[in-house]
Amino acid sequence: MGITGNLSSEQLQSLDSQGYLVIESFATAEEIEALRKRMGQLLDDFDGSTASIFSTKDQQKTTDDHFYESAEKVSFFFEEKAFGDDGCLKQSKQLSINKVGHALHELDSVFKKFSCSEKVLSFLSSMGYKRPVIIQSMYIFKQPGIGGEVVPHQDNSFLYTEPPTCTGLWLALEDATIINGCLWAIPGSHKNGLVRRFIRGEKGVTFDRPSPTYDQKDFVPIEVKAGALVAIHGDLIHQRSVELNYVSHSQMTKKMKRRIFLIPIDRATIFFFVFLCLDYSFENQSSKSRHAYSLHVVDTEGCKWAQENWIKRKVEPEPLYVS
């Protein structure tokens, strides 16, 4: 299949040097609306009896068959703080779900249409993919008030290939700010390599080593408007910082404001991750949600899927194209 890449040499060089790249106006307003509307329909149809709690703080304790089987299903995961002491939801299910995954791109026609669109394929072709497959997809809500914390991690820890080939596409469906949990990154940190692996064994899943400690002053905030394609190299360290959930724009220092606008993004931009990327997300304690749709892609040409990964599919995914 003849796929033409849509990234310039300058963009690829920027991604290589900084570890991330913003692609403005990647998705249209109509595409964003279609994805959000469809997720609303899926949530309305969801009865709430077949979901588990999602946590990156201690996934070993919350992992169950629902989590494992979600690799080839459209499954729903509640926020950690969605339930009261009585075991009942504190608010509506629409405001209690953490994410939906991990096979939206395969099983839902609306999400599949975007995930397999020509512009996504062209983007991957620019990255040098020969036989890419989408290994997982997620609709992430980051709910107001209870949107769960995502502790520092590298995505390639979870979706490892030998050699590493994993790339993520993170489509902002709503504005992401320092108030509702935007991403923060350490520019250039992708050159330090993979820190640890997330291993699935007989007793469940666990990391093979502790997470290192990072200096918060090294992180740069990445605020985005609804939309946008941001390419993030897999080794890049990124997070979201809770301390600024209570800081207004007027309270920020000039230095912080300069750093925030280092990465300008318009409506319809996507975050792009190559999976050695370490990210961190604190709770969303604001009154605003922060919806996003993410894809994770690996190559199947000249590399091997690690058997210790949490995803153990019964049916191999179809390649997006073969070049």
TrEMBL record:
Keywords noted in UniProt: Dioxygenase, Iron, Metal-binding, Oxidoreductase
InterPro entries the record matches: Phytyl_CoA_dOase-like
Pfam families to which the protein is assigned, alphabetical: PhyH (PF05721)
Tagged with keyword Lipid biosynthesis: no
GO MF annotations, alphabetized: metal ion binding; phytanoyl-CoA dioxygenase activity
Signal peptide boundaries: none
Needed cofactors: Fe cation
Name assigned to this protein: Phytanoyl-CoA dioxygenase isoform X1
